[in-house]
Backbone:
Protein backbone atom coordinates (compact mmCIF):
# COMPACT_ATOMS: atom_id res chain seq x y z
CA UNK A 1 0.00 0.00 0.00
CA UNK A 2 1.25 3.48 -0.84
CA UNK A 3 2.08 5.55 2.20
CA UNK A 4 -0.01 8.64 2.97
CA UNK A 5 1.44 12.15 3.16
CA UNK A 6 -0.65 13.11 6.20
CA UNK A 7 -3.05 11.50 8.63
CA UNK A 8 -6.26 13.14 9.79
CA UNK A 9 -8.22 12.25 12.92
CA UNK A 10 -11.81 13.43 13.25
CA UNK A 11 -14.38 13.20 10.49
CA UNK A 12 -16.97 15.79 11.43
CA UNK A 13 -17.78 18.44 8.82
CA UNK A 14 -14.43 20.27 8.96
CA UNK A 15 -12.36 17.08 9.05
CA UNK A 16 -14.16 15.47 6.11
CA UNK A 17 -13.92 18.57 3.97
CA UNK A 18 -10.23 19.10 4.74
CA UNK A 19 -9.53 15.49 3.80
CA UNK A 20 -11.25 15.97 0.43
CA UNK A 21 -9.42 19.27 -0.08
CA UNK A 22 -6.08 17.58 0.60
CA UNK A 23 -6.95 14.87 -1.89
CA UNK A 24 -7.91 17.46 -4.51
CA UNK A 25 -4.38 18.84 -4.29
CA UNK A 26 -2.78 15.47 -4.99
CA UNK A 27 -1.63 14.64 -1.48
CA UNK A 28 -2.62 11.30 -0.02
CA UNK A 29 -4.47 11.51 3.28
CA UNK A 30 -5.23 8.67 5.69
CA UNK A 31 -8.33 9.23 7.82
CA UNK A 32 -9.43 7.86 11.18
CA UNK A 33 -12.38 8.52 13.45
CA UNK A 34 -13.04 7.22 16.93
CA UNK A 35 -16.45 6.02 15.69
CA UNK A 36 -14.88 3.97 12.91
CA UNK A 37 -18.13 3.58 10.97
CA UNK A 38 -17.67 7.21 9.89
CA UNK A 39 -14.48 6.19 8.08
CA UNK A 40 -16.38 3.66 5.98
CA UNK A 41 -19.22 6.11 5.37
CA UNK A 42 -16.76 8.67 3.99
CA UNK A 43 -14.98 6.12 1.78
CA UNK A 44 -18.28 4.86 0.40
CA UNK A 45 -19.65 8.37 0.03
CA UNK A 46 -17.91 11.68 -0.69
CA UNK A 47 -14.42 10.11 -0.85
CA UNK A 48 -15.38 7.26 -3.18
CA UNK A 49 -12.95 7.06 -6.09
CA UNK A 50 -10.34 9.28 -4.39
CA UNK A 51 -6.89 8.45 -2.98
CA UNK A 52 -8.18 8.86 0.59
CA UNK A 53 -7.09 5.91 2.74
CA UNK A 54 -9.40 4.75 5.52
CA UNK A 55 -7.99 3.18 8.70
CA UNK A 56 -9.69 1.73 11.76
CA UNK A 57 -7.09 2.24 14.51
CA UNK A 58 -4.43 4.73 15.52
CA UNK A 59 -1.77 2.07 15.04
CA UNK A 60 -2.94 1.52 11.48
CA UNK A 61 -2.98 5.28 10.91
CA UNK A 62 0.59 5.76 12.10
CA UNK A 63 1.84 2.78 10.08
CA UNK A 64 0.22 4.18 6.93
CA UNK A 65 2.21 7.44 6.98
CA UNK A 66 5.41 8.57 5.29
CA UNK A 67 8.17 9.73 7.67
CA UNK A 68 8.30 12.17 9.28
CA UNK A 69 4.73 11.32 10.11
CA UNK A 70 2.24 14.18 10.09
CA UNK A 71 -0.94 13.58 12.10
CA UNK A 72 -3.64 16.25 12.15
CA UNK A 73 -6.31 16.36 14.87
CA UNK A 74 -9.70 17.77 13.89
CA UNK A 75 -11.45 16.94 17.15
CA UNK A 76 -13.28 18.93 19.80
CA UNK A 77 -11.03 21.33 21.72
CA UNK A 78 -10.07 20.45 25.27
CA UNK A 79 -9.65 16.98 26.75
CA UNK A 80 -10.13 15.08 23.45
CA UNK A 81 -7.00 16.78 22.08
CA UNK A 82 -4.98 15.80 25.16
CA UNK A 83 -6.31 12.25 25.02
CA UNK A 84 -5.20 11.80 21.41
CA UNK A 85 -1.81 13.41 22.12
CA UNK A 86 -1.18 10.85 24.88
CA UNK A 87 -2.09 7.96 22.58
CA UNK A 88 -0.07 9.27 19.64
CA UNK A 89 3.07 9.91 21.69
CA UNK A 90 3.23 6.16 22.36
CA UNK A 91 3.09 5.40 18.63
CA UNK A 92 5.14 8.17 17.01
CA UNK A 93 8.89 8.59 16.75
CA UNK A 94 11.18 11.60 17.32
CA UNK A 95 10.81 14.08 14.48
CA UNK A 96 7.17 13.17 13.79
CA UNK A 97 4.56 15.95 13.94
CA UNK A 98 1.22 16.31 15.73
CA UNK A 99 -1.04 19.07 14.39
CA UNK A 100 -4.08 20.44 16.22
CA UNK A 101 -6.41 22.09 13.71
CA UNK A 102 -9.28 22.77 16.11
CA UNK A 103 -10.25 25.93 17.97
CA UNK A 104 -7.98 25.27 20.95
CA UNK A 105 -7.19 27.90 23.55
CA UNK A 106 -3.74 29.32 22.84
CA UNK A 107 -2.64 28.73 26.44
CA UNK A 108 -3.33 25.02 25.98
CA UNK A 109 -1.28 25.10 22.77
CA UNK A 110 1.64 26.75 24.58
CA UNK A 111 1.65 23.95 27.17
CA UNK A 112 1.10 21.19 24.61
CA UNK A 113 3.95 22.41 22.41
CA UNK A 114 6.38 22.25 25.32
CA UNK A 115 5.08 18.86 26.44
CA UNK A 116 5.14 17.22 23.02
CA UNK A 117 8.58 18.67 22.21
CA UNK A 118 9.87 17.17 25.48
CA UNK A 119 9.04 13.79 23.95
CA UNK A 120 11.12 14.55 20.84
CA UNK A 121 8.03 15.15 18.69
CA UNK A 122 7.09 18.41 16.98
CA UNK A 123 3.78 20.15 17.58
CA UNK A 124 1.71 22.60 15.54
CA UNK A 125 -1.41 24.39 16.72
CA UNK A 126 -3.10 25.93 13.70
CA UNK A 127 -6.11 28.14 13.38
CA UNK A 128 -8.36 27.26 10.43
CA UNK A 129 -11.07 29.65 9.31
CA UNK A 130 -13.62 29.51 6.56
CA UNK A 131 -16.23 27.11 7.85
CA UNK A 132 -17.46 24.12 5.91
CA UNK A 133 -17.02 25.71 2.48
CA UNK A 134 -13.58 27.04 3.29
CA UNK A 135 -12.35 23.68 4.54
CA UNK A 136 -13.51 22.08 1.31
CA UNK A 137 -12.31 24.65 -1.19
CA UNK A 138 -9.64 26.73 0.55
CA UNK A 139 -9.54 28.04 4.13
CA UNK A 140 -7.33 30.57 5.84
CA UNK A 141 -4.72 28.60 7.80
CA UNK A 142 -2.70 30.11 10.69
CA UNK A 143 -0.04 27.67 11.95
CA UNK A 144 2.20 28.11 14.97
CA UNK A 145 4.13 25.82 17.30
CA UNK A 146 7.45 24.05 16.65
CA UNK A 147 9.25 26.07 13.92
CA UNK A 148 11.21 22.99 12.80
CA UNK A 149 7.93 21.33 11.78
CA UNK A 150 6.86 24.06 9.37
CA UNK A 151 8.89 22.94 6.31
CA UNK A 152 7.24 19.51 6.51
CA UNK A 153 3.66 20.79 6.51
CA UNK A 154 4.12 23.95 4.44
CA UNK A 155 3.60 22.33 0.99
CA UNK A 156 0.33 20.72 2.08
CA UNK A 157 -1.06 23.70 4.00
CA UNK A 158 -0.21 26.28 1.37
CA UNK A 159 -1.64 24.07 -1.39
CA UNK A 160 -5.01 23.59 0.30
CA UNK A 161 -5.33 27.17 1.59
CA UNK A 162 -7.34 29.89 -0.12
CA UNK A 163 -5.43 32.01 -2.63
CA UNK A 164 -5.57 35.76 -3.21
CA UNK A 165 -4.18 37.74 -6.10
CA UNK A 166 -0.71 39.21 -5.78
CA UNK A 167 -0.16 42.90 -5.18
CA UNK A 168 0.89 43.58 -8.78
CA UNK A 169 -0.74 42.60 -12.03
CA UNK A 170 0.69 39.30 -13.19
CA UNK A 171 1.79 38.24 -9.70
CA UNK A 172 1.14 34.65 -8.76
CA UNK A 173 -1.73 33.96 -6.36
CA UNK A 174 -0.62 34.10 -2.73
CA UNK A 175 -1.80 31.40 -0.28
CA UNK A 176 -3.70 32.58 2.80
CA UNK A 177 -1.33 30.59 4.98
CA UNK A 178 2.09 31.27 6.41
CA UNK A 179 4.02 30.53 9.57
CA UNK A 180 2.73 32.70 12.41
CA UNK A 181 5.13 32.02 15.27
CA UNK A 182 6.18 29.81 18.15
CA UNK A 183 3.99 27.68 20.45
CA UNK A 184 0.52 29.26 20.75
CA UNK A 185 0.92 32.06 18.18
CA UNK A 186 -1.21 30.41 15.50
CA UNK A 187 -4.14 29.73 17.78
CA UNK A 188 -3.80 33.21 19.29
CA UNK A 189 -4.08 34.88 15.89
CA UNK A 190 -7.08 32.67 15.11
CA UNK A 191 -8.63 33.69 18.44
CA UNK A 192 -8.23 37.38 17.59
CA UNK A 193 -9.65 36.68 14.13
CA UNK A 194 -12.74 35.23 15.82
CA UNK A 195 -13.00 38.22 18.16
CA UNK A 196 -12.93 40.56 15.17
CA UNK A 197 -15.52 38.33 13.53
CA UNK A 198 -17.79 38.92 16.55
CA UNK A 199 -17.26 42.66 16.11
CA UNK A 200 -18.00 42.65 12.37
CA UNK A 201 -21.17 40.62 12.89
CA UNK A 202 -22.36 42.88 15.69
CA UNK A 203 -21.81 46.02 13.58
CA UNK A 204 -23.83 44.51 10.75
CA UNK A 205 -26.54 43.51 13.21
CA UNK A 206 -26.72 47.05 14.57
CA UNK A 207 -27.02 48.50 11.07
CA UNK A 208 -29.79 45.98 10.38
CA UNK A 209 -31.53 46.93 13.65
CA UNK A 210 -31.46 50.63 12.79
CA UNK A 211 -32.77 50.05 9.25
CA UNK A 212 -35.52 47.74 10.50
CA UNK A 213 -36.64 49.63 13.60
CA UNK A 214 -35.87 53.29 12.96
CA UNK A 215 -36.44 53.36 9.19
CA UNK A 216 -39.07 50.63 9.04
CA UNK A 217 -37.35 48.91 6.12
CA UNK A 218 -38.39 45.49 4.85
CA UNK A 219 -35.98 42.58 4.38
CA UNK A 220 -36.10 43.11 0.61
CA UNK A 221 -35.23 46.81 0.99
CA UNK A 222 -32.35 45.97 3.30
CA UNK A 223 -31.15 43.32 0.88
CA UNK A 224 -30.71 46.04 -1.74
CA UNK A 225 -28.77 48.25 0.69
CA UNK A 226 -26.36 45.50 1.78
CA UNK A 227 -25.89 44.39 -1.82
CA UNK A 228 -24.89 47.95 -2.69
CA UNK A 229 -22.62 48.19 0.35
CA UNK A 230 -20.82 45.07 -0.84
CA UNK A 231 -19.62 46.93 -3.94
CA UNK A 232 -17.59 49.50 -2.00
CA UNK A 233 -15.30 49.78 1.03
CA UNK A 234 -17.45 47.33 2.99
CA UNK A 235 -17.01 44.60 0.35
CA UNK A 236 -16.68 41.45 2.46
CA UNK A 237 -17.91 37.92 2.97
CA UNK A 238 -20.09 38.90 5.93
CA UNK A 239 -21.79 41.78 4.10
CA UNK A 240 -22.33 39.47 1.12
CA UNK A 241 -23.99 36.72 3.14
CA UNK A 242 -26.06 39.30 5.03
CA UNK A 243 -27.59 40.40 1.74
CA UNK A 244 -28.20 36.78 0.75
CA UNK A 245 -29.82 36.00 4.12
CA UNK A 246 -32.16 38.99 3.84
CA UNK A 247 -33.24 37.85 0.37
CA UNK A 248 -33.89 34.25 1.43
CA UNK A 249 -37.55 33.26 1.65
CA UNK A 250 -39.16 30.59 3.80
CA UNK A 251 -41.55 28.02 2.27
CA UNK A 252 -44.40 30.53 2.65
CA UNK A 253 -42.56 33.15 0.61
CA UNK A 254 -41.82 35.38 3.61
CA UNK A 255 -38.29 36.33 4.74
CA UNK A 256 -36.79 33.50 6.77
CA UNK A 257 -34.68 35.92 8.83
CA UNK A 258 -37.86 37.34 10.42
CA UNK A 259 -38.71 33.88 11.78
CA UNK A 260 -35.38 33.22 13.49
CA UNK A 261 -35.30 33.64 17.29
CA UNK A 262 -33.20 36.61 18.42
CA UNK A 263 -31.01 34.68 20.88
CA UNK A 264 -27.39 34.36 19.73
CA UNK A 265 -25.06 31.48 20.46
CA UNK A 266 -21.29 31.48 20.85
CA UNK A 267 -18.53 28.89 21.23
CA UNK A 268 -16.08 30.80 23.41
CA UNK A 269 -13.35 32.24 21.19
CA UNK A 270 -14.80 35.74 21.43
CA UNK A 271 -14.87 35.42 25.22
CA UNK A 272 -11.25 34.21 25.21
CA UNK A 273 -10.29 37.30 23.18
CA UNK A 274 -11.90 39.54 25.78
CA UNK A 275 -10.25 37.70 28.67
CA UNK A 276 -6.85 38.00 27.00
CA UNK A 277 -7.43 41.72 26.45
CA UNK A 278 -8.20 42.19 30.14
CA UNK A 279 -5.08 40.22 31.09
CA UNK A 280 -2.95 42.28 28.68
CA UNK A 281 -4.51 45.60 29.68
CA UNK A 282 -5.64 46.35 26.12
CA UNK A 283 -8.93 48.31 25.72
CA UNK A 284 -10.68 45.86 23.39
CA UNK A 285 -13.94 47.69 23.99
CA UNK A 286 -15.77 47.06 20.73
CA UNK A 287 -15.13 43.34 20.52
CA UNK A 288 -16.02 42.85 24.18
CA UNK A 289 -19.29 44.72 23.60
CA UNK A 290 -19.99 42.38 20.70
CA UNK A 291 -19.46 39.35 22.95
CA UNK A 292 -21.64 40.81 25.71
CA UNK A 293 -24.35 41.70 23.20
CA UNK A 294 -24.66 38.00 22.40
CA UNK A 295 -24.95 37.30 26.12
CA UNK A 296 -27.69 39.93 26.44
CA UNK A 297 -29.56 38.51 23.45
CA UNK A 298 -29.51 35.07 25.10
CA UNK A 299 -31.60 36.48 28.00
CA UNK A 300 -34.64 36.22 25.74
CA UNK A 301 -37.22 35.33 28.38
CA UNK A 302 -36.01 38.09 30.71
CA UNK A 303 -36.08 40.62 27.90
CA UNK A 304 -39.61 39.66 26.94
CA UNK A 305 -40.72 40.14 30.56
CA UNK A 306 -38.78 43.42 30.91
CA UNK A 307 -40.32 44.79 27.72
CA UNK A 308 -43.69 44.76 29.47
CA UNK A 309 -42.32 46.79 32.40
CA UNK A 310 -39.58 49.11 31.12
CA UNK A 311 -40.16 51.89 28.61
CA UNK A 312 -37.99 54.05 26.39
CA UNK A 313 -38.40 56.97 24.00
CA UNK A 314 -41.36 56.94 21.65
CA UNK A 315 -39.69 59.11 19.00
CA UNK A 316 -39.88 58.26 15.30
CA UNK A 317 -37.31 58.98 12.62
CA UNK A 318 -38.05 62.24 10.82
CA UNK A 319 -34.89 62.76 8.77
CA UNK A 320 -34.00 61.82 5.22
CA UNK A 321 -33.92 58.03 4.89
CA UNK A 322 -31.31 57.95 2.11
CA UNK A 323 -29.00 60.34 3.98
CA UNK A 324 -29.25 58.22 7.12
CA UNK A 325 -28.35 55.05 5.23
CA UNK A 326 -25.29 56.87 3.86
CA UNK A 327 -24.40 57.94 7.41
CA UNK A 328 -24.84 54.37 8.55
CA UNK A 329 -22.43 53.16 5.88
CA UNK A 330 -19.75 55.54 7.19
CA UNK A 331 -20.48 54.65 10.82
CA UNK A 332 -20.10 50.94 10.14
CA UNK A 333 -16.83 51.50 8.27
CA UNK A 334 -15.35 53.75 10.95
CA UNK A 335 -16.37 51.31 13.69
CA UNK A 336 -14.85 48.44 11.69
CA UNK A 337 -11.55 50.33 11.61
CA UNK A 338 -11.69 50.63 15.41
CA UNK A 339 -12.39 46.91 15.80
CA UNK A 340 -9.36 45.91 13.73
CA UNK A 341 -7.26 48.60 15.42
CA UNK A 342 -8.03 47.05 18.80
CA UNK A 343 -7.43 43.53 17.51
CA UNK A 344 -3.99 44.51 16.23
CA UNK A 345 -3.22 46.28 19.51
CA UNK A 346 -3.98 43.01 21.29
CA UNK A 347 -1.81 40.93 18.95
CA UNK A 348 1.07 43.36 19.43
CA UNK A 349 0.77 43.12 23.22
CA UNK A 350 0.66 39.31 23.09
CA UNK A 351 3.68 39.21 20.79
CA UNK A 352 5.64 41.21 23.35
CA UNK A 353 4.39 39.06 26.22
CA UNK A 354 5.16 35.72 24.57
CA UNK A 355 8.16 36.80 22.44
CA UNK A 356 6.42 36.09 19.13
CA UNK A 357 7.75 37.72 15.99
CA UNK A 358 4.41 38.36 14.31
CA UNK A 359 4.24 39.65 10.74
CA UNK A 360 1.23 41.96 11.02
CA UNK A 361 0.91 42.59 7.29
CA UNK A 362 1.23 38.84 6.75
CA UNK A 363 -1.64 38.23 9.17
CA UNK A 364 -3.83 40.59 7.15
CA UNK A 365 -2.85 38.70 4.00
CA UNK A 366 -3.79 35.37 5.59
CA UNK A 367 -7.20 36.85 6.43
CA UNK A 368 -7.82 38.26 2.94
CA UNK A 369 -9.20 34.99 1.60
CA UNK A 370 -10.84 31.83 2.88
CA UNK A 371 -11.74 33.08 6.34
CA UNK A 372 -15.00 34.50 7.69
CA UNK A 373 -13.70 38.08 7.98
CA UNK A 374 -12.20 38.13 4.48
CA UNK A 375 -12.71 41.52 2.88
CA UNK A 376 -11.19 44.14 0.61
CA UNK A 377 -10.52 46.12 3.79
CA UNK A 378 -7.72 43.77 4.84
CA UNK A 379 -5.68 44.80 1.80
CA UNK A 380 -5.54 48.30 3.29
CA UNK A 381 -4.18 46.90 6.55
CA UNK A 382 -1.48 44.99 4.69
CA UNK A 383 -0.56 48.17 2.77
CA UNK A 384 -0.27 50.07 6.06
CA UNK A 385 2.18 47.54 7.54
CA UNK A 386 4.08 47.20 4.26
CA UNK A 387 4.71 50.95 4.38
CA UNK A 388 5.54 50.91 8.07
CA UNK A 389 6.28 47.47 9.64
CA UNK A 390 6.66 49.19 13.02
CA UNK A 391 3.27 50.90 12.86
CA UNK A 392 2.11 51.14 16.46
CA UNK A 393 -1.58 51.76 15.81
CA UNK A 394 -3.73 51.62 12.68
CA UNK A 395 -5.41 54.91 13.55
CA UNK A 396 -2.20 56.86 12.91
CA UNK A 397 -1.71 55.36 9.45
CA UNK A 398 -2.56 58.11 6.92
CA UNK A 399 -5.26 56.09 5.15
CA UNK A 400 -7.10 55.00 8.29
CA UNK A 401 -6.70 58.42 9.93
CA UNK A 402 -8.35 60.08 6.92
CA UNK A 403 -11.11 57.48 6.73
CA UNK A 404 -12.07 57.77 10.39
CA UNK A 405 -11.89 61.54 10.47
CA UNK A 406 -13.99 61.93 7.32
CA UNK A 407 -16.58 59.52 8.76
CA UNK A 408 -16.80 61.31 12.10
CA UNK A 409 -19.81 63.57 11.43
CA UNK A 410 -21.90 60.68 10.06
CA UNK A 411 -20.72 58.34 12.83
CA UNK A 412 -21.76 60.82 15.53
CA UNK A 413 -25.13 61.44 13.88
CA UNK A 414 -25.86 57.71 13.83
CA UNK A 415 -24.90 57.22 17.48
CA UNK A 416 -26.94 60.28 18.52
CA UNK A 417 -29.98 59.18 16.53
CA UNK A 418 -29.86 55.65 17.91
CA UNK A 419 -29.54 56.97 21.47
CA UNK A 420 -32.45 59.37 21.05
CA UNK A 421 -34.61 56.58 19.63
CA UNK A 422 -33.57 54.08 22.30
CA UNK A 423 -32.06 51.58 19.86
CA UNK A 424 -28.99 49.82 21.32
CA UNK A 425 -25.84 50.04 19.21
CA UNK A 426 -23.16 49.05 21.75
CA UNK A 427 -20.47 48.26 19.17
CA UNK A 428 -20.75 51.49 17.19
CA UNK A 429 -21.06 53.67 20.28
CA UNK A 430 -18.20 51.99 22.16
CA UNK A 431 -16.03 52.25 19.04
CA UNK A 432 -16.70 55.99 18.93
CA UNK A 433 -15.96 56.30 22.65
CA UNK A 434 -12.65 54.51 22.15
CA UNK A 435 -11.75 56.84 19.28
CA UNK A 436 -12.55 59.89 21.39
CA UNK A 437 -10.56 58.51 24.30
CA UNK A 438 -7.55 57.58 22.18
CA UNK A 439 -7.37 60.99 20.50
CA UNK A 440 -7.56 62.92 23.80
CA UNK A 441 -4.27 64.10 25.23
CA UNK A 442 -5.89 64.36 28.67
CA UNK A 443 -8.34 61.99 30.32
CA UNK A 444 -9.81 62.22 33.85
CA UNK A 445 -7.66 59.38 35.20
CA UNK A 446 -5.86 61.90 37.43
CA UNK A 447 -9.00 62.08 39.60
CA UNK A 448 -9.25 58.30 39.55
CA UNK A 449 -5.65 58.03 40.75
CA UNK A 450 -6.36 60.53 43.51
CA UNK A 451 -9.33 58.43 44.62
CA UNK A 452 -7.21 55.26 44.62
CA UNK A 453 -4.54 56.97 46.67
CA UNK A 454 -7.16 58.39 49.06
CA UNK A 455 -8.80 55.08 49.95
CA UNK A 456 -5.98 52.63 49.32
CA UNK A 457 -2.65 54.50 49.37
CA UNK A 458 -2.06 53.29 45.81
CA UNK A 459 0.12 56.37 45.00
CA UNK A 460 0.15 58.49 41.85
CA UNK A 461 2.53 60.15 39.40
CA UNK A 462 2.78 63.95 39.01
CA UNK A 463 2.75 65.98 35.79
CA UNK A 464 5.60 68.12 37.13
CA UNK A 465 7.86 65.14 37.91
CA UNK A 466 9.48 62.44 35.69
CA UNK A 467 7.40 59.38 34.79
CA UNK A 468 8.07 56.46 37.10
CA UNK A 469 8.23 58.48 40.32
CA UNK A 470 5.30 57.79 42.62
CA UNK A 471 3.85 59.91 45.40
CA UNK A 472 1.40 59.47 48.24
CA UNK A 473 -0.65 62.10 50.07
CA UNK A 474 -2.13 61.85 53.54
CA UNK A 475 -5.50 63.16 52.33
CA UNK A 476 -7.32 62.95 55.69
CA UNK A 477 -4.57 64.04 58.04
CA UNK A 478 -4.71 60.79 59.96
CA UNK A 479 -3.32 58.41 57.37
CA UNK A 480 0.15 56.87 57.37
CA UNK A 481 3.19 56.78 55.14
CA UNK A 482 2.80 53.13 54.11
CA UNK A 483 1.75 52.69 50.45
CA UNK A 484 0.55 49.79 48.36
CA UNK A 485 2.87 48.03 45.94
CA UNK A 486 2.85 49.26 42.35
CA UNK A 487 1.77 46.90 39.60
CA UNK A 488 0.23 47.23 36.18
CA UNK A 489 -2.31 44.87 34.62
Residues:
Amino acid sequence: MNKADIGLIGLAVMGQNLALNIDDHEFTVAVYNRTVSKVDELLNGAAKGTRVIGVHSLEELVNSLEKPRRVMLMVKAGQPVDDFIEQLILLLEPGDIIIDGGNSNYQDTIHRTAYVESKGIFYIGTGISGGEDGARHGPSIMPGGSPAAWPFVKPIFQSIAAKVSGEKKGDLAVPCCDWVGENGAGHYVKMVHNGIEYGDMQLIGEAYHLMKESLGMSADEMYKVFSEWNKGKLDSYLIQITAEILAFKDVDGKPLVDKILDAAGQKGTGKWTGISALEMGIPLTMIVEAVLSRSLSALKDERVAASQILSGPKSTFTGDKKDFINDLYDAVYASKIISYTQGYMLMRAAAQEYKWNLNYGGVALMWRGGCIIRSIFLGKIKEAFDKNPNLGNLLVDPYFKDQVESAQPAWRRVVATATQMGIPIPAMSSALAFFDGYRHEWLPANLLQAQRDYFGAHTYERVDQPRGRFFHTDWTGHGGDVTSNQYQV
Summary: Strands lie at 6-9, 29-32, 53-54, 70-73, 97-100, 122-129, 140-145, 163-164, 174-175, 181-182. The longest strand covers residues 122-129.
